[in-house]
From TrEMBL, chain A:
<keyword id="KW-0813">Transport</keyword>
<keyword id="KW-0472">Membrane</keyword>
<dbReference type="InterPro" id="IPR017871">
    <property type="entry name" value="ABC_transporter-like_CS"/>
</dbReference>
<feature type="region of interest" description="Disordered">
    <location>
        <begin position="355"/>
        <end position="377"/>
    </location>
</feature>
<keyword id="KW-0406">Ion transport</keyword>
<feature type="compositionally biased region" description="Basic and acidic residues">
    <location>
        <begin position="16"/>
        <end position="29"/>
    </location>
</feature>
<keyword id="KW-1278">Translocase</keyword>
<dbReference type="GO" id="GO:0005524">
    <property type="term" value="F:ATP binding"/>
</dbReference>
<comment type="subunit">
    <text>The complex is composed of two ATP-binding proteins (NikD and NikE), two transmembrane proteins (NikB and NikC) and a solute-binding protein (NikA).</text>
</comment>
From TrEMBL, chain B:
<dbReference type="InterPro" id="IPR025966">
    <property type="entry name" value="OppC_N"/>
</dbReference>
<comment type="similarity">
    <text>Belongs to the binding-protein-dependent transport system permease family.</text>
</comment>
<feature type="transmembrane region" description="Helical">
    <location>
        <begin position="254"/>
        <end position="279"/>
    </location>
</feature>
<keyword id="KW-1133">Transmembrane helix</keyword>
<dbReference type="InterPro" id="IPR050366">
    <property type="entry name" value="BP-dependent_transpt_permease"/>
</dbReference>
<dbReference type="Pfam" id="PF00528">
    <property type="entry name" value="BPD_transp_1"/>
</dbReference>
<feature type="transmembrane region" description="Helical">
    <location>
        <begin position="379"/>
        <end position="407"/>
    </location>
</feature>
<keyword id="KW-0813">Transport</keyword>
<dbReference type="GO" id="GO:0055085">
    <property type="term" value="P:transmembrane transport"/>
</dbReference>
């Protein structure tokens, strides 16, 4: 499983000695609710094998919100679908483990934990079946997970609709999805998800298809529900603004790999990975008035080969020759917090790459980025 | 259009409780035919028990007699057409009418009754739509409206409806019965006016048939004619002297039952396999593609001939005069085409997110298929089912024409064509021509109905150009 083809300096044993568990347990909380370790989901077609999720690891503890952020095509949604066991052919989970309350779901234990993990998809109009009423679809989940039928199920469905903030719930419960607005539909989808009485809610871009004011309402709703029900939430999005508002900890994912992980505040204050910095810079409103909004040139590569180099290197302003040869492992960065890691050779002591030099020669000179990079080393 | 319905509907049922009036109308209509219905149910049960050779046949016979004694308005007994001329007037016919007139009256009443029932059903639907349904509009309303403005489809519906009525009321429609005229013709006597001796004589039906054959230019009884025994033949006689209309009416039952059975079976096979293929995809789907390809590669006709020969004289061949075996063979070879047609839509629906949502909260695969995929392919099933039914009717007729399929004494349309084929160029042209026209008409009707349903279900063919385009597409 050696991910380093080039023997120079960094052999796997040295790596593991330095960082025995890629995700550090937090000191206080004990066992995580969901622990994903080295998850690999591949899609095998006749032409190529796509490593959509390539060694992703992260933890979610009870009652917290963890963000998974990255560009389109970086493997966020496949990660979510892998956690729920919804990967269809030609895709399959090729390695790693997904432990929920200690049970490894990849051993085929999804059936046992159905309802403990619920998912809210991006497009609310797509996740509701248009031929059944909203109440009917909530009752479907209620029947499976809470054994409720008849009028008891109907009452509970109305309660759930009220809980997700749908006004006039007793009437809405017998309406069809097309009779609801987009925001109301997403609330109804969340109600269906809650009907399973989950411990973990996976939100796969739940606000992307909604307009901005509705986005804020849905985020507030999720925060309220989390407070009331003690839900853990895995929040998947490409929107850094949503991440900042909604999450406690963040994993930045790029081409199927987690490149940086940090508590949300620290990530925004002191991003360590060049990709994270570029993402933060490209948030509208962060650059000064009259400046061009910085963008990341190029697109996320489709990982068809096992990683033998830094996949971000072709787009990285700091890329050095070593980046093309060595696959970076997550290393601890930052002084204050123990659970801030970045998979970048800039932060790896065994490699001597000068960030400043690259910035000087690069075409995107940025003072703030240089500051941060300097501060971390 | 909606407004027009509203006003016309309210004039039809101006009372405060339209539902109650509608139910009362329904009960009244049912009461007219309650005897026939009871007869049918009991007779059907007796047939099933006899086939399974289960006990209780004797007890059912008593019930059968009781059911037969329930009066029925539209029966042969209430409006009899079989009688004889006694020199001055017609005896034993309804109100002393001529047999042809009495028969025509009965047929007209049967069809009037059938259309009344259909109208009652339509009225009920409109009433439900206007008074009892909470939603003011559902997508299905548009489907119904599009179908109504689809002339070709409505033509198909009317043809199919009349065919079904013919099959359902076959015993009441024929001027005589299969039992009296064909099966046991030498056990039944009829009275007739002997023109030579100028008196009423009696003879056996079988002998009368021999003297009423249509087998050439001179020996013939053409459609709408009386034979020498005062019997009316709406479609003329067969070369054996039997009544062609009775033969065809009962034959329509066979065609319909075998057709519906085979299409129903192949639709259920096709649906379950398409749902499984769409849900499991991958290898399961590939396996089914291979299986259906293998079945499609077999020459259907040769397979049919082989199986009818192999199964000859087995118990299964005896069920419904061999019709059951035919239905099984048609279903076994015909599901592949329907499976191909619904697999695509099913696969498409299976990609929708609500399927994933249902899987994510642990819904059982069978329920996901039934609840979340099936509703989206029923439209396709309806269209293909209707069109396949026409094909099945042709196939059954074709097999009977070749002397395969339904066993000979049982009337079947294809065999009527076969029986008359030697006389097509003679004066007895009607023997082949009439069943041929009927087969064509019915099959066209089923295809037209399928076209209409397809255009009605597809919202892209909206009513603006719906009628004209539909007719063009259908023709």
């Amino acid at each position: 499983m050696s991910r380093i083809s080039d023997g120079r300096g960094a052999d796997p044993t040295a790596d593991s000695a330095r960082d025995p568990d890629p995700v550090r347990d937090r000191e206080t909380d004990g066992d995580p609710l969901l622990a994903v370790r080295d998850l690999r989901t591949v899609f095998r077609t006749e032409r190529e094998t796509i490593h959509a999720v390539d060694g992703v690891s992260f933890d979610i503890y009870e009652g917290e919100t963890v963000g998974l952020v990255g560009e389109s095509g970086s493997g966020k949604s496949v990660t979510a679908r892998s956690i729920l066991g919804l990967v269809d052919e030609p895709g399959s989970i090729d390695g790693g483990s997904i432990r929920f309350r200690g049970d490894d779901l990849t051993d085929g234990l999804w059936r046992e934990h159905r309802g403990d993990i619920s998912i809210v998809f991006q497009d609310p109009s797509g996740s509701l079946n248009p031929v059944y009423t909203v109440g009917n679809q909530i009752r479907e989940a209620l029947k499976i997970h809470q054994g409720l039928r008849g009028s008891a199920a109907r009452e509970r469905a109305v309660e759930l609709l009220e809980a997700v903030g749908i006004p006039d719930a007793p009437r809405r419960v017998s309406e069809y999805p097309h009779q609801l607005s987009g925001g109301m539909q997403q609330r109804a989808v969340i109600a269906v998800a809650l009907a399973c009485d989950p411990d973990l809610l996976v939100c796969d871009e739940p606000t992307t298809a909604l307009d901005v004011t509705i986005q804020a309402q849905i985020l507030d709703l999720l925060a309220d529900l989390q407070r009331e029900e003690g839900l853990a939430i895995l929040f998947i999005t490409h929107d850094m603004g949503v991440i900042e508002e909604a999450t406690d900890r963040v994993n930045v994912i790029y081409a199927g790999e987690v490149v940086e992980r940090a508590p949300t505040a620290e990530l925004f204050d002191a991003p360590a990975h060049p990709y994270t910095r570029a993402l933060l810079e490209s948030i509208p409103g962060r650059s000064g008035p009259g400046e061009r909004l910085p963008t990341i040139e190029g697109e996320v590569p489709t990982p068809t080969e096992p990683a033998t180099h830094c996949r971000f290197a072709p787009r990285c302003p700091h890329a050095a020759p070593d980046c093309e040869r060595v696959h970076p492992e997550p290393v601890a960065v930052g002084s204050a917090s123990a659970d801030h890691t970045a998979a970048c050779l800039l932060h790896d002591d065994e490699f001597d790459i000068e960030a400043g030099a690259a910035y000087g020669g690069g075409d995107a000179p940025d003072a703030a980025g240089a500051d941060d990079a300097g501060g971390r080393e | 259009m909606a407004h027009e319905e509203r006003t016309s509907g309210s004039t039809v049922l101006p009372t405060g409780a339209p539902g109650a009036v509608w139910v009362a109308l329904g009960v009244g209509l049912f009461a007219l035919e309650a005897g026939a219905f009871a007869n049918f149910v009991v007779g059907f049960l007796a047939d099933v028990l006899a086939t399974l050779s289960a006990p209780g046949v004797g007890a059912l016979a008593a019930v059968e007699r009781a059911a037969a004694s329930v009066p029925t308005l539209l029966s042969r007994e209430t409006i009899p057409n079989a009688g004889y001329w006694n020199g001055r007037r017609w005896v034993d016919t309804f109100l002393g009418l001529r047999p042809g007139v009495a028969w025509a009256l009965r047929v007209a009443l049967v069809y009037a009754y059938a259309f009344a029932v259909a109208g009652w059903a339509v009225l009920g639907y409109r009433l439900y739509r206007r008074e009892y349904r909470t939603a003011a509009w559902t997508p299905r309303d548009d489907v119904v409206d599009r179908f109504r403005s689809h002339g070709w489809g409505v033509f198909g519906l009317v043809v199919v409806f009349m065919f079904v009525v013919m099959a359902v009321f076959a015993p009441a429609l024929g001027p005589t019965t299969v039992d009296k005229n064909m099966r046991n013709s030498y056990s039944n006597e009829i009275s007739y006016w002997n023109a030579e001796t100028e008196q009423v004589d009696t003879t056996l039906v079988g002998d009368a048939n021999l003297a009423s054959q249509s087998s050439g230019d001179t020996d013939r009884v053409l459609p709408g004619q009386y034979d020498d025994f005062g019997r009316y033949h709406p479609f003329g006689t067969l070369p054996t002297g039997r009544d062609l209309f009775t033969f065809l009416a009962v034959g329509s039952r066979i065609s319909l039952v075998i057709g519906v059975l085979s299409v129903g079976l192949s639709a259920s096979i096709a649906t379950s396999l398409a749902l499984a293929a769409a849900y499991y995809k991958g290898r399961a789907d590939l396996g089914m593609v291979l299986l259906s390809d293998a079945i499609m590669a077999m020459p259907q006709l040769l397979l049919l001939i082989m199986l009818t020969t192999v199964l000859d004289d087995t118990w299964i061949d005896g069920v419904y005069s061999g019709g059951f075996v035919l239905a099984l063979i048609f279903a076994g070879t015909g599901w592949t085409y329907m499976w191909r047609s619904v697999r695509g839509p099913a696969l498409q629906v299976s990609e929708r997110q609500w399927i994933d949502a249902a899987k994510s909260f642990g819904q059982k695969p069978s329920v996901v298929m039934r609840r979340h995929i099936l509703p989206y392919i029923t439209g396709y099933l309806l269209v293909y089912g209707s069109m396949t039914l026409g094909g099945a009717i042709i196939a059954i007729a074709g097999l009977s024409f070749l002397g395969l399929g339904v066993a000979p004494p049982t009337p079947e349309w294809g065999r009527a064509v076969n029986l008359g084929q030697d006389y097509v160029t003679t004066g007895s042209w009607h023997v082949s021509l009439i069943p041929g026209i009927l087969i064509t008409l019915v099959v066209t009707g089923f295809n037209a109905l399928g076209d209409g349903v397809r255009d009605a279900i597809d919202p892209q063919s909206d009513s603006a150009s719906g009628a004209a385009a539909g007719r063009g597409g259908g023709a």
